[in-house]
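check this:
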Amino acid sequence: MDSHSHPYVVFLPAEQKDKILSAIFGSKASLEILRFSLKHGISNKIYQKDLVRRLAYSNKTIIENLKTLTHLGVLNEHMEKAEHEGRVVWVKAYQLSDVGKWFALLIAEEKDLSEKEKAEILQNIFRSYIRWVKSLSEKLHVEKAKFERIFNEEMKG
């Protein structure tokens, strides 16, 4: 594998695969929301008001894309209390879901991620992949011991 190439693996819910891919890659606004999340830390919250202020899209476009991404499980939505000019108000906050992080990483530049984020991502990818292999091996009646042997062989090298 070329040292400048990166393998990309994305685990998608089978029943929503087309909808998710279309929502993300069919909309520049959705891509910008993912990039915005990356810039603020892949595990950090982002706020609707900040997206409206900083992205070159209308409030309506941003809200529609946030709703779609939330409905498809790419983003998790939270309501938080905040104080604004002496009043308590509720604000919407969003965080990338595990699926959302995978998509954000497709468009990420490696230099934009901290070592800690890279290590966390690697561990999450590995865990998800192992779960997928385990599930598929059970369906295909492949013994787990074979995978354990392969893993041990590869980790030695």
In short: The helical segments are 17-25, 28-39, 48-54, 59-71, 98-107, 115-140, 144-156. The mean pLDDT is 86. The first strand starts at residue 46 and ends at 47.
